[in-house]
Amino acid sequence: MKLYGQLYGEYFLKGIKHPFSAAVATDSSQFLNAMVSMLLYVLLLPLTIYATLHHELQGLPAGAFAELVVKPVIWIALFMFLLNVFTYAAVKLSFNPAVKLKEVMARFGTLLTLFLMLYVVSLLFLFLNGDISKVIILLSFISTLMTVPLLVMTSYKRRMVGGLDPLYAILLVYVAVMLVIVILGNSMIGYITGF
Asked: Which of 72, 120, 123, 126 is exposed most, by the fewest CB atoms within 10 A?
């Protein structure tokens, strides 16, 4: 465990120092590290939202932790997986038809390291200024949706003469993401509120 912690620490630091360069150099051998990054992301997003709400409202009712953290983890994990699949499809259709999902997910996880750090920074800002914390959380989430798929795509050299134009591929990813947000968002809200 200690050895893996050191290996993940090195991976994480490379992702923080030079995110795009680290992603370009990432192959499927880094899949486990990427999965850890995605798991941390899936856990940190609802935790930071919960902490922010707890701070803003000076407390939350009993059971709020389960409703705001535990239940959304499943939905966020599903969303993260679908975002990876959409990115994979975009890379396959416009850049590299031989690409494997595992490699795309490894690069995706490498690019998440910066956003993991932003969630931790947002927790620190809770004690200084709650408004800044909320901005950091929102910035991190939106940036994950908008920049990570684009950067994963551009981390591949274009090997296709034909194929889908990269602009259309990324636009299709964004449309698919927005549809999933609407569908999963409504389902998650209904599930949490019990309707």
From this structure: 120
